[in-house]
Amino acid sequence: MFKNKVTDIFFDLDHTLWDFDKNSAFTFQKIFIEQQINLEIEDFLEVYMPANLKFWKMYREEKITKSELRYQRLKSVFDTIGYPVSDQVIDILSEEYINNLSTFNNLFPNAIEVLDYLQPNYKLHIITNGFQEIQDKKLRNSGIHSYFNHIIDSEMAGVKKPNPIIFNLALNRADAKPHTSLMIGDSLEADILGAKAVGLHTIHFNAHREESHNEAPIIYDLQEIKSFL
User: Fold this and answer.
1) Of 204, 201, 176, which Cα lies nearest the Cα of 189?
2) What is the pLDDT along the chain (229 residues), one digit of tens a residue?
3) Rg of the chain's alpha carbons, rounded to an integer?
4) Is 151 helix (H, G, I), strand (E, B) or coil?
């Protein structure tokens, strides 16, 4: 579908190439032991995963700050579960979570295979809403940094996806045109609708098994990208 149309491919990172949920689970497991938080990790994650997505959406929409995101996503979960934790401990957990998250390096199945397949024929780039301080570590520690020509993050752009400014910055940095560029990401709102509004082609990696839609081709395994390119 895109084989003769596309020269540049822009990937989201978290929830698209880098398995955020799996790495996050390992991180919490580690720091809970260190901080003596006596909670079953499965019970915590059942509440945390949707809460994290909710607070990230608020952060993306400029409704909360980075520090509020990091605090509230933990505070709200402990409150919901009914596990008493002081603000001091939440601050420690928040800091240790950031310090340890990028040390776990699980990628989605077939990520390396697909990057190997694409790299000889396309210029590859990253557009991420993640924090600059840890996104580079994720890319390097998981062994995929070298695949990408340009890495654009929201702190660098001063705005977050789906704001068109970050997509236009990425296009300018990559010296790419919208009509010959493809965005692949997990967020319908941030990645797909945001990129489409600027004129990019899109593929939705439906990592969260959201409802089907007609905004873009939908894939459930990264290997399916080969059928479009």
Assistant:
1) 204
2) 898 899 999 999 999 999 999 999 999 999 999 999 999 999 999 999 999 989 988 998 889 998 999 999 999 999 999 999 999 999 999 999 999 999 999 999 999 999 999 999 999 999 999 878 789 999 999 999 999 999 999 999 999 999 999 999 999 999 999 999 999 999 999 999 999 999 999 999 998 888 899 999 999 999 999 999 9
3) 18
4) strand
DSSP 211: P
Closest by alpha carbon to 16, among 178, 220, 207?
Answer: 207
Burial environment of residue 120 by CB neighbours within 10 A (0 to 12, 13 to 18, 19 or more): exposed
Q: Give the angle 212-216-222 at the CA atoms, nearest 5°.
A: 85
Q: How many C-beta atoms lie closer than 10 Å to residue 86's C-beta?
A: 9
> Which structure tokens are listed for 203?
């593929």
Among 12, 14, 19, 191, the one annotated catalytic: 12
Taking a C-beta distance cutoff of 8 angstroms, is the pair 135, 184 a contact? Answer: no
| CB 70 within 8 Å of CB 94 | yes
The structure tokens listed for 125 are 């780039």
Please confirm, yes or no, whether 221 is among the known catalytic residues: no
User: What is the distance between the alpha carbons of residues 59 and 202, in angstroms, rounded to a whole number?
Assistant: 23
Distance of CA 158 to the CA centre of its chain: 17
Nearest to 218 by CA among 208, 227, 205: 205
Structure tokens at 196: 């489409």
Determine the Cα–Cα distance for residues 189 and 81; give it in Å rounded to an integer.
29
